[in-house]
What does this fold into?
Amino acid sequence: MQKTNKMEGIKHKTVQANGLSIDIAGKFEGPLVLFVHGFPELWYTWAWRHQILYLADHGYRAVAPNLHGYGDTTGAPVNDHTKFTIHHLVGDLIGLLDAITDQDEKVFVVGYDWGAVYAWHLCMFRPDRVKALVNLSVPFMPWNPNGDMVEMLRAAYGEDHYVSRFQEPGKIEAEFGRMNKDHDLARNAPVALPPWLLEEDIEYFASQLDKTGFSGGLNYYRALHLNCELSSAWQGAKVMVPTKFIIGDLDLNYHMPGIKEYIENGGFLKDVPLLEEVVVMEGVAHFINQERPHEINNHIFQFLQKF
It folds into this structure.
């Protein structure tokens, strides 16, 4: 099934893979670049559409799926967070690649936020399927025998940290539901949007989340404990794919305890031996591919041209 998006000819297809009906958006000719979105975003991810159009204009087959639990991708049991582990997500991506490529074809991958986490693990679990990786905002985080991410963040930031608050099923959904009741009031309030965020973007996301709710995306956080348990076999494993990493110097991820030192003092390169370049963009926060889409386009394109 295929339909056309109003955004300059971006098309949608539904692909059957890994027990899901996966909605993918993109332009479907040339070498494949797989874009992987974060939370609570969709294939649209505010700016992936810009990267899709740019790379398609430069001869690439740029594809962005709505991931497990998001948008028009269906088949994921949103009431069961145990089906949202990193292993399920990588399985979805491999199933998608099997469905849209030859099974021995290597592809380019670009990840952002949670999508960067999935992309790191895709490259670690299945480097045979990835030609090169560009990841944004979230560096590789090796398996930690001293505790999972939820407990580390809880220890560092307390119970009010958003990851801690996301853990109890139903609670944060209820809070989001109360916000939704005030949607019309909020829409009419004089809110100053950042220059990269348009009203039409807000409307697109609101329309999609009205259909699906937030539980699918929240389940990724609720599966963090399981990710730690199930990934212990990969303790010390390395990401053996040519990689470029880009982060903003104002991104809170860059300033989490130990992250800047990990990136700058050799730990990152030890875990990702084929890391070719780290770019720290000045004056940019977490939404890097939205705040500086043209620069990100150039960074991605220049790196992919090497291969």
Remarks:
- Residues 2-304 form a domain with the Rossmann fold fold (CATH 3.40.50.1820).
